[in-house]
């Protein structure tokens, strides 16, 4: 097996080759759905495509790794993360959420904004979902009145003010992208739409037709106002193509799904995980997209955590099964959820059992996994030199 040092040397060589344009013609990089995307945004898409389809490796990511940890004592020093405490490096993919950058108090908003900026500056990819608070239920969870909003948007019915509210919310998203972030991101809006828990989900008025139309409206509105966004579409545990908004509106085909390999979890087994990732990479190949495992984790409950039941879960139930499949391994990244006193832990931390920490160090050392220092060498946002 190639050791980590050899891998880093290989990544340095790949970065150098990219810089002189040698990799630019090695495969057909997809065109972003925003045809006016900045050169840096285009470079990010091209390199995500290469990582997924050509590199034989996968980026590892986590939601809020630099602004939350299992203690959540204040907001963190961006030099620290639970993952860095264990393996000495941050994740390659930094997850964030527009809800936390728009709706929280100014101290928390600043903490998450500072963390995202630092991750980008250090070479990581930054992706944002949006746990969008509904107008009526004041929650991202399903609410009967909120479930009518997108139908009003697609039909142009502003009699209740829902259409005006919808665009005002998107204006805030665009403001954050342009004025507070200012760098390319992967945006994953209206995610897990085939589940029944979000107000934009399967109980939405008008169903998949309304959803697909609303997603297209959202993309059109945002890409007319910023050129820093790649758009990810991510159903839950199945491909759910009835919700697909079309090739002109999606850059990344994502899959969300928790708990493969967890004892008693029969709704998303390891076999189901591999099958849906194979379906996602097939679909991505047919449609010229990048594929990704956009949310997963052991899904801990109370005091029962994967690091006591299956300490090598990340390798045994995620990495090895994915890499046993020629198709499933074509994903560009895997992202897990938040470590906080109210969430997870989804990754080991400095106080986790030794077996869990050791297993995650082995996961980090595996030449197939990429962390922040690895992807920094690839210069994800740097366009190739012109030939």
From TrEMBL:
One of its GO terms (molecular function) is hydrolase activity. This is Glycosyl hydrolase. Residues 39-373 form the GH26 domain. The active site is at 192 (proton donor), 295 (nucleophile). PANTHER family: GH26 DOMAIN-CONTAINING PROTEIN-RELATED, MANNAN ENDO-1,4-BETA-MANNOSIDASE E-RELATED. It comes from the Bacteria. Residues 1-28 form the signal peptide. Keywords: Glycosidase, Hydrolase, Signal. InterPro entries: GH, GH26_dom, Glyco_hydro_26.
